Amino acid sequence: TSYTLLKKRLTLFVFLFLCRRLLETDSKSLRSVNGSRRNSGSSLVSSSSASSNLSHLEEDSWILWGRVVNEWDDVRKKKEKQLKDLVRKGIPHHFRAIVWQLLCNAQNLPIKDQYSELLKMTSPCEKLIRRDIARTYPEHEFFKEKDSLGQEVLFNVMKAYSLVDREVGYCQGSAFIVGLLLMQMPEEEAFCVFVKLMQDYRLRELFKPSMAELGLCMYQFECMIQEQLPELHIHFQAQSFHTSMYASSWFLTIFLTSFPLPVATRIFDIFMCEGLEIVFRVGLAILQMNQAELIQLDMEGMLQYFQKVVPHQLDSGPDKVIQVAYQVKYNAKKMKKLEKEYTTIKTKEMEEQVEIKRLRTENRLLKQRIDTLEKVSHIVRDWLRQGQVTRAQEAEENYLVKRELATVKQQSEEASMQLEQAQSTIRQLQQQPGNPRYSEEFLLQLERELVQARLKEAESQCALKEMQDKILDMEKRNTCLPDENNVVRLQEELMGVKLREAEALTGLKELRQQVRDLEDHWQRHLARTAGRWKDGPRKNTMSELQDELMSVRLREAEAQAELRETRQRLLEMETQNQIHSNQLRRAEQEARSLQERLQVLTGQNKTLRGELQEAKRKQAETECKNKEEVMAVRLREADNMAAMAELQQQISELEIQKEEGKVKGQLNHTDSSQHIRELKDQIAELSREVRCAHTGSSMKGYANLKYLIGHHCGFLLPCSEVLTTPCRMVFPAQRQFNSPIHTLSPSISVA
């Protein structure tokens, strides 16, 4: 595999490097000796010793990492702490490819074999990947040029992963991680390492569309700031400077977009060994180193500071920030506790969102229901108002019809009385003898009066009939009204109003009669006192007093009349008020009854819908069961038919084998001609038995019998010829009859 080849190459490279080192050491020692003899200058010796010390350190690092790679399994199991210390000091550039693969166990992934097949497929994220490739390391030589090799292999790896993990697909920050991997190793190996990073280093959860893991990291990081840098946390809160505004790219790209590439690569070495813990440590170390400057800035100033000042602070190297990072307090148990708290908070938020959504839905439904009820209420009010107006009109028409009916009845009675009087007068006149001329004229006049009376009677009868028809029509219309109790109440109220009106009219008539009596009395008094104006002063005074008394009585009577009229008006107003209150109460009762009926109908509708859905479901289940039963029955029938066919086949084969055995035995011990005749008889008998026993499925048995006879006789005949055609078998003389059946080769001639 490529991993084995790479390991062998690195071993060979280390061996060659050591050999070259030995040669250079020997040559340097010789040159130093010769130089000391020729020149006694000390500057050359000091420079050569410094460079030799540096080269010794590099060579020792290479030798050490070569041993680590060769003995990786033992080092990973037994010397994990020493391995972490080595990684923190930095992995040599030429060892990064294999060490990263070893750290994440990506050297022998089976998905590597699928890489070429994945590149042939089409990804739905190809446009997004093409768009963001130019933004990934735009200043690096490997990715700077458009359509270069670096951009092409970066596109291939991102496309392949988007096909492997369709839930995550593609996220822009992941391209920087893949780009760093491609700077160290080929694209197939970079693809395998990236797959392991996404699966085992929590990067997949960070790059999911929901980014729930990123929110958790922000929460944990903010809690660490609050605990270890409280003043800076208070300043961030005062400036509304959220953690995600500056730290989200740290977690998504592992500082690859925030720091210089050599520094970010050193941090990535530690990330490959220890995971996201280094991101928390380095992030808190940066804040701790720049706390004094950040407290003096506002939100925009802090953003500019993180983008422009912080990256240049690490140009000298990452050793200082890594040293400060490992002085930061990091408690894994507390991080687990914070993760549980964040999960609880998010669960509560989700429940609250679900509850808010449910309440909003209920509120919307209630508003719709209120609007519907208001519309229904308006319709009911209009209907009640129209019904009240209609009933008032009908009551008024009913009252007028009854008055007209009473008038017509009175007129009819008067006409009938006049008719009776005229008839009695005619009879009297007919009985009295007198002047014939006078009696004839009088009779003509009486006849005219009789005709007029009859006409009036007919008119009154017609009017009476019309009034009766109107009454019947009104009664029919009253019966069509929805609430009979209301009509009865209205009739009772109308009767009460009529009684009160009759009492008031009676009182008014009495008052008017009193007024007329007083006026008559006053006129008589004036008539009596008309001739006494010339009497003495005493009489004049008495008359004046009487006049004043009469005038006072008249005014009293008028006042009483006005009082009665006022009471009558008050009574009418109270009656109208009572009628209106009754109408309003009835309207409210009808509205309540309609609302109750609406609720009942709504409940019935829901119940009926539920029953309908249940019936549909049961019907669907019944249909499915019926179909399954029908299919099962058909399958059983097919199995039975197949079993019957197999049994018939076996029976026919057994019969044929039995007959074949008989034929073999007889051919070995009997005469050929006699045996042929017996065979004919047996064939005819067998044909009859087959026809009787296998009427529906005999052709298959015939074919088998034909095949067996033809096979033993050396030729094939149609089934009908075997059963019906007379045969003659001739055996050669040199053949013995007691030979086995398979040695005979009879010749058959068909007659």
Automatic annotation (TrEMBL):
Residues 90-275 form the Rab-GAP TBC domain. SUPFAM superfamilies: Ypt/Rab-GAP domain of gyp1p. It comes from the Eukaryota. One of its GO terms (molecular function) is small GTPase binding. It holds the Pfam family RabGAP-TBC. The keyword Cell membrane does not apply. InterPro entries: Rab-GAP-TBC_dom, Rab-GAP_TBC_sf, Rab_GAP_TBC_domain. Residues 349-376, 405-468, 501-696 form a coiled coil. Keywords: Coiled coil, Phosphoprotein, Signal. Residues 1-25 form the signal peptide. PANTHER family: EVI5-LIKE PROTEIN ISOFORM X1 (PTHR47219:SF11), RAB GTPASE-ACTIVATING PROTEIN 1-LIKE (PTHR47219). This is Rab-GAP TBC domain-containing protein. It comes from Electrophorus electricus (Electric eel). The gene is evi5b.
